[in-house]
Design goal:
WASH_strumpellin; mainly alpha; 2 strands; WASH complex subunit strumpellin; about 550 residues
Length: about 550
């Protein structure tokens, strides 16, 4: 059904796929544009405010627009400044507006798709059926998640007052805008300042973000500016809460690795829960279920491209969520987690040092120990990820003074209990990377030379079996050995079976089974006919 859902002739699948693709594109553009915010629109200094304050205005302009335009027209100096800003920044203003408008269009298109899906516009499709399909479920969850990420990213990277000034400037200058264009009003309503990040856009954007005061009902009011179908939101949260949406559990087979396996899903759930804040506030049992599954041993969430948040302060305003996290932050639980991570770091550091010593990592050793090496790399990455997240500073680090103080205390406790040493951690990080590179190089070389090696080993095996057949036929005996026609014929048959082996993908499983059977047959014939007494025969059979 997955293939059918994303088939080119499946309008429903192609529509939601296109929406999700657009969502990823919008976020990429936002992350690019954050580097091109015109400094003048930040009005950082008093001089800039005095010089440009009458020209570059926030949404307060709309209340006095006529009077303000008259004031500018009556002052030649203001007119010159106004024209200067128009000429210098019109292109970038258009670009900012396009991405802002794209956010609004995205949620409108998603809502339209949901209405059409519920209205039966897509034949044989309904919301329930789409969520039952593996690909459909992933896309439906991603669609809501990406919209939430857009809102958080735009508020994090482009301060609210700067957004307002950019939109007002676009409204005043853009020749692309028409008087009948009402879409800008909706864009302004969606992206007006939240009061959460109205700081500067300097390199310290994130630190200034941390200094901002917690705005009342943020981000739930922000996420609710354009309503989203509540049934859809509930189904997305339900799937993220209960399912392994991306089938990651199979990659992390140990139960203790579950939170890492579901880390990406946990980040999506963190974002999507802001569309259903009643759950965060009041549904204690559901929040406890979520915390037990996703956050029992971690509390720093990376929800998009390294943007991290600490649940200790992010969920502090939400009663049910805050209560659910109490067990995670229990002192006994924290000590147990730290003890485990400390042991893991010490063990992995020693193991990676050992395996990376010259001569320890060879092709044959790697092939003989693939499961163990894979498990080692997995353990290294899990440990490095946890330590890096929980000893670092979250990107979004905002909350009440009490919660921020608690965050600092927990971070200091973690660093103390795991005996965190930057040099040793960095060594483990480098060892993990080096081990991955070496293994990748070995496996790549083996794959590149697979056909050549297969042909060579197959030819060599056939030759050795033929030598044994010739030896027992009496043509080329190994020293003083008796002629045995039955053994000679048996080895000839083995040679023919080896010749039939193929390494084509469609026959690999059959060939693998046949190889194992041939090896067993060679071992059994040694015991049955006592062939191991002749060292040349034994050597040939072992090498075969």
């Amino acid at each position: 059904m997955a293939a059918e859902f994303l088939a080119e002739n499946n309008v429903c699948g192609q529509t939601i796929l296109q929406i999700v693709a657009e969502g990823n594109t919008i976020i990429c553009e936002l992350l690019r544009l954050k580097e091109f915010i015109p400094e003048v629109f930040c009005l950082k200094t008093k001089e800039e405010q005095q010089k440009y304050g009458e020209i570059i205005m926030d949404f307060s302009y709309f209340q006095i627009s006529d009077a303000q335009e008259a004031r500018i027209e009556a002052d030649e100096k203001l007119q010159a400044l106004d024209e200067e800003i128009r000429e210098n920044y019109l292109v970038i203003l258009n670009r900012f507006y396009i991405v802002f408008e794209s956010i609004h269009k995205y949620i409108k298109e998603l809502n339209t798709f949901l209405d059409e899906l519920n209205g039966g516009m897509f034949i044989q499709q309904s919301m329930e059926k789409v969520f039952q399909d593996e690909e459909g479920k992933q896309l439906m969850c991603e669609a809501l998640y990406l919209y939430g990420v857009m809102l958080l990213v735009v508020d994090l990277q482009i301060p609210g007052l700067v957004r307002e000034r950019l939109l007002v400037a676009y409204n005043r200058y853009s020749a692309l805008k028409t008087d009948g264009d009402s879409n800008i009003d909706e864009v302004c309503k969606l992206l007006r300042s939240t009061g959460y990040n109205d700081g500067s856009t300097s390199s310290s954007t994130l630190s200034s973000f941390a200094a901002s005061k917690k705005t009342q009902n943020y981000p739930e009011d922000y996420f609710g500016r354009v309503p989203v179908n509540p049934v859809y939101v509930e189904m997305v949260i339900g799937r993220l809460r209960s399912d392994d949406v991306y089938n990651q559990i199979s990659v992390y087979p140990l139960p203790e690795h579950r939170s890492t396996a579901l880390a990406n899903q946990a980040g999506m759930l963190y974002v999507c829960l802001f569309f259903a804040t009643n759950m965060l506030h009041n549904q204690a049992s559901r929040m406890r279920e979520i915390v037990d599954k996703f956050f029992s041993d971690n509390w720093i969430v990376s929800f998009y491209m390294g943007i991290t948040v600490n649940l200790l302060n992010a969920w502090d305003p939400f009663k049910a969520a805050k209560s659910a996290m109490l067990n995670t932050f229990d002192s006994g639980n924290l000590r147990e987690i730290c003890s485990k991570q400390k042991r893991s770091m010490e063990t992995l550091l020693n193991r990676t040092r050992s395996i990376l010593k010259e001569g320890n990592l060879t092709e044959q050793k790697l092939l003989d120990n693939i499961p163990k090496v894979t498990a080692l790399i997995r353990e290294c990455n899990i440990t490095v990820r946890w330590v890096m997240l929980h000893t670092g500073q979250p990107v979004i680090d905002v909350g009440s003074a009490a919660s921020l103080k608690k965050c600092r205390q927990v971070k200091e406790l973690i660093e103390s209990d795991i005996d965190f040493k930057g040099i040793e951690f960095f060594e483990l990080l480098l060892n993990t990377a080096q081990l991955e590179v070496k293994i990748r190089e070995i496996l790549k070389r083996l794959l590149d030379e697979r056909q050549e090696r297969w042909d060579s080993f197959k030819k060599e095996a056939c030759e050795r079996v033929q030598d044994l057949a010739d030896a027992y036929s009496g043509e080329k005996p190994f020293g003083k050995m008796k002629k045995n026609d039955s053994l000679s014929k048996w080895f000839l048959n083995i040679g023919r079976e080896i010749t039939k082996l193929s390494n084509e993908d469609k026959e690999l499983s059959v060939s693998g089974r046949n190889i194992i059977q041939l090896i067993q047959a060679l071992e059994e014939v040694q015991d049955f006919h006592d062939l191991s007494k002749n060292m040349q025969v034994k050597q040939n059979m072992v090498e075969t």
